[in-house]
Amino acid sequence: MIQTFILGIVQGLCEFLPVSSSGHLALFQHFFGLNADGEEMVAFNLLLHFATVIALIIYFRREIFKVLYEWLLGWTGKRLPGWSYGWAILIASFFTAALGLPMRKTVDLISASPMYVGCGLILTAVILAAVPVISHSGKKNSMLKIAIVVGIAQGIAVLPGVSRSGMTIAASLLMGMGLSEAFKFSFMISIPAILGANLLEALKFYKSGEAAFMPEGYLLACVAAFVLGLVALGIMRRLVLTEKWPYFGIYCFVIGTAAILFSL
């Protein structure tokens, strides 16, 4: 039960901070001697991700409603900002899926290897180290170009150890977005990506015909993931606006190096 609760804490804190929740879950499950590919852990991981995506939807509920309303209103001919923003989210999601779906087997392979996860964390550290340079790189590009570049960045981040928030916020800044705008766009495009990935995993699990036995204490772990997810979003927003979030690169480098040395 303690291990289950710890995994819930890890998911809640790491899903939105630039440290890769998938990488941390893989490392902790390996450390605990758990089979990440087993039906119990697959179902449990799905619940943890669902808990944090609910936290994400609640946190951005006003923005989601506004974009959805204005995007739907755009079909009547009244084009408000949510019309182009909604299309940008869909375009980014398309490029994420186009890049991420073919890598599903690679993701499973990397998840089983602390060395590969460590390499992903070091890549995240490098990206975060480059943020102070790329965040002042030039003028803002069109929403179409931003959506394509950030969607590709999010697709790369399906690899365990590579931070989704780190990649997408860095890519948004590179394309000329402001700090607040980059934070918002990064997490808005993550909603369809996370929901889509969870749906695919759920369908895969369902088709396997395996029984879904949850580990002891899974409900408490999901509550922890939800609550800490909300906390982490608030922390991440403040860190992005104060430009302090790249310091997580030091943490990623240390943990990534430790994971590689541990696997030798």
Strand and helix map with partners:
Blueprint: H1 2-14, H2 21-31, H3 39-59, H4 61-74, H5 81-100, H6 104-111, H7 114-134, H8 143-156, H9 164-174, H10 179-188, H11 190-208, H12 218-241, H13 248-263
Q: What do these coordinates show?
A:
With 264 residues, the chain is mostly helical. Helix content is 77%, strand content 0%. It is built from 13 helices and no strands. It has helices at 2-14, 21-31, 39-59, 61-74, 81-100, 104-111, 114-134, 143-156, 164-174, 179-188, 190-208, 218-241, 248-263. α3 packs across α12 (218-241), α7 packs parallel to α9 (164-174) and α9 packs across α10. The mean pLDDT is 89.
Class computed from helices, strands and strand pairing? mainly alpha
Q: Indicate the overall shape.
A: globular
Element string (H = helix, E = strand): HHHHHHHHHHHHH
Helix content: over 70%
Q: Estimate what percentage of residues fall within beta strands.
A: under 5%
| N- and C-termini, Cα separation | 30 Å
The total count of strands amounts to 0
Please, what is the average pLDDT? 89
Please summarize the sheet with the most strands. Answer: none
How many helices in DSSP terms?
Answer: 13
What is the CA-atom radius of gyration, in angstroms? 18 Å
Low-confidence stretches: none
Labels describing this entry:
264 residues; globular; mainly alpha; 77% helix; 13 helices; 0% strand
Briefly, what is this?
This protein is mostly helical. The chain has helices at 2-14, 21-31, 39-59, 61-74, 81-100, 104-111, 114-134, 143-156, 164-174, 179-188, 190-208, 218-241, 248-263.
